[in-house]
Amino acid sequence: MACFRFFSFYISFPFLFIAFRVVSGDSTGDGQIMTDRASLVSFMSGIVSDPENALQSWNSSDLHVCNWTGVVCNNARSAVVELYLNGSSLRGTISPALAGLSKLTILDLSMNFFEGPIPAEIGSLVELEQLSLTWNLLEGTIPSELGSLHKLVYFNLGTNKLSGDIPEAIFCNGSSFLDYVDLSNNTLTGEIPLRDGCELRALRYLMLWSNGLVGPVPPALANSARLEWLDLESNMLSGELPSDIVRKLPRLQFLYLSYNDFVSHDGNTNLRPFFSALANSSNLQELELAANKLGGEIPANIGDLPRTLTQFHIAENLIYGSIPPQISNLFNLTLLNLSSNFLNGTIPTELCRMERLERVYLSNNSLSGEIPSAVGDLPHLGLLDLSRNKLSGLIPDSFANLSQLRRLLLYKNQFSGMIPPSLAKCVNLEILDLSHNRLSGTIPDEVAGMRSLKIYFNLSSNYLHGALPLQLSKMDMVLAVDLSSNNLSGTIPSQLGSCIALEYLNLSGNILEGPFPVSIGQLPYLQALDVSSNRLIGAIPQSLQASPTLKQLNFSFNSFSGNVLDDGAFAALTVDSFQGNSGLCGSIKGMKACKKRRHYHLIIVPILLSLVVTPIFCIFGSCLALRSKIRQKLEIFSRADMVDEEKQESKEHKYPKISYRQLMEATGGFNPSGLIGSGQFGHVYKGVLQDNTRIAVKVLDSKTAGGILGSFKRECQILKRTRHRNLMRIITICSRPDFKALVLPLMSNGSLERHLYPSHKLNQGLDLVQLVSICSDVAEGVAYLHHHSPVRVVHCDLKPSNILLNDDMTALVTDFGIARLVKGGDEGVTPYDSATYSSTDGLLCGSVGYIAPEYGMGKRASTQGDVYSFGVLLLEIVMGVRPTEVLFNECSSLHEWVKSHYPHNLDPIVQQALSRCSSPSMPEYFRKACCEVIVELIELGLMCTQYSPSTRPSMMDMAHEMSRLKQYLSDPSSQEMEATSSKG
Q1: Which of 512, 661, 741, 776 qualifies as a cystine partner to 534, CB 3.0-4.6 A?
Q2: Angle value at C-alpha 537, between 535 and 539, nearest 5 degrees
Q3: pTM of the predicted model over 0.70
Q4: What pLDDT does residue 761 have?
Q5: Which CATH number fits domain 652-746: 3.40.50.720, 3.10.180.10, 3.30.200.20, 1.20.120.450?
């Protein structure tokens, strides 16, 4: 897949077309403005939900319509000329009354929840230059009346539920201004209605991807000589590749034709004419032709494609023959994907001259011969997939030079010889799959001890022998290990119990012997285990039966013995998991029952118990009484500490005194119209003090004051002891018996959540640079709490609504209501310390979706829990959905869903993420940098949300990583991210 193009860029579009703007003059008088007001009021009547109060000002009878939110009038204030209500979370229908805004030039209702049809009456707004209804829930057909908008420059209906054919009038209305058309991600059908004689000479961007369009690409598109971006991907278009059309598009930069039914020329045998036609597009950067029905060989004139090309994707076609050496002329390629075709011959050594290659996919072909050793000379190579071919020979030692290599996939080939120990020099390698080859020898200790492996390590179906290396225990971050179907011998080392992140372990089909280690059964996240077809003996450890995560197990064809019960992790298993072990018996369905033995000593047992239990009960009762007294003393000490703390607070005079009356005046009597947030502990109001200081007042709910008094004291205590640019500071407090409030600075840009979810979609106003900067600020603030604060703090509730943004978009972490203070910076406090410093007191630490899994099992709050929440935040920003949304099908969390797509199916995720934080006008080098950063954010998010707390990085590590990404985006050409990457 290409480097993940955008879905739309309407936010930046008005700046591109400012030259087309014509402001209405004062020719309509008061009559027009009154008509416009009536139209807007009628439009408002169709709104059934306005959760952000975007239309609050529209209810004022004293306010001039030109001062209403989202309304822009002409200079004479005699007519409405622009209406911006994008990202306002509005729900309802679009009223036909908008047709009364006869002077309207811009209508932007994007990123809301509007339902129903598009009113045909909008077609009467003949002055309209920009129409954006994208990211809504609009249904029905596109009204043909919209073809009457002859001055339209920008037209975006993408990402709705529109159906039916595209009206011909949209494209063939004689308009000479139409520059941008986006109808993508709907369910439109029929052909592209661009007949001969239609001339869209101003058209630069045409987005029709993800619909049900059929037929060929219309020849009339050749008249759009200014076209730069053509995306027809994921339709049912057919016919020959549009060579005659692209030959007349010299400015073409991005061409996406993947996932259609196109064929090549001359009876689907010749790609040469199409590549020749593209040679005229001297600025071409990305070419995607994947998943069509293209036949023929890759012609030598592929080397004549523009040198500006950075991505070439022609996978999943019917292409045969060899890879021409002329492909090396495309020396700026970073992505080359020729996978899933019928290519044969060898990998040309000329391919290794393309020094900018980062990802190479040649899998699922019939390539033969050896891997050129010069592959090791590609300095930026991060992914190499040569799987499912007929390659042979040795695995080159030169792979040791690939310092950036993260994924090496060589499975299902015919490689022989030993695994080169030099692979261990690939210090960033996260995935290594050499399975289904003819490799022999032992597993090198150096390779077995690669700590960088994070996803999986697969050497299955080879001819490896010898013992399992003890160094495997160093893979404490790997999720899956498969060494099955080899000739490995000896015992299973108990040290494998150190691979605490392990979820999948397959050692089947070897000649391993001895007992099965208890330590493996204690792995906290083990889900699947297969040790079948070995020579293992002894009892099956009860630690496996007690595992809370184990779902799949296979002990078949060994020599295990003993009783197996059908409870715990074994409750869902059948005899199929244990067959071929004659010594096993038990209650598993289909398994033979164990023989009952007579126990003559049962008569003696009750007598012995009566002699033993009585003195034990006496001793135990005394201990309980003593423990009760100790607990009473601890409570007295705790209350005394609280009194001392209150006395200490009363001595501090560094906060200005603000009375309850002043807060009442500042907030208009805590008027609901000033409510800017609420939670389980109270409400937050905005206000202005007499000296014009803008404040936020966090008022604790008096109805639950008894239960939240500790929360109030903790937040005061934390806010006054911490000083950091990324942590919310306190102005003062107001505490009365019946009223308690925190007075904080008002953050003008609100919370991160309000920017992320104005309409349950990421706000396109926040670009990737801003998002990475915000995440860097958050990491810095939380790292300070964990490692540098005078009193170490675990936040316990890190989420977007607790991240506020000031005037310059600097992020500040707030809401420490359920935080934990960690005495002396030591998280391992004693129970006595916990009685004084614990803040949760029975509360689950955090908000649903962000809570670390160990908290659900009763574990105490820790800094690693905050790291987990931060990882969820990173994945949430990339995905554009809340972690609680119903998106993940059978996956239990956002982490699980993203991990199920990692690493091979990230394309759609990154594509959508890039669409929310980029525009087609940005330089190509920066688009590539954004792609890299999004993938980095996914990987960092997965690292932070690992189930085992000990495998997660620290917040200091994350602060460093986010600072690195922030610096890289400020100067991508420096390649700092590649040079300083510390992953693994």
Answers
A1: 512
A2: 145
A3: no
A4: 45
A5: 3.30.200.20
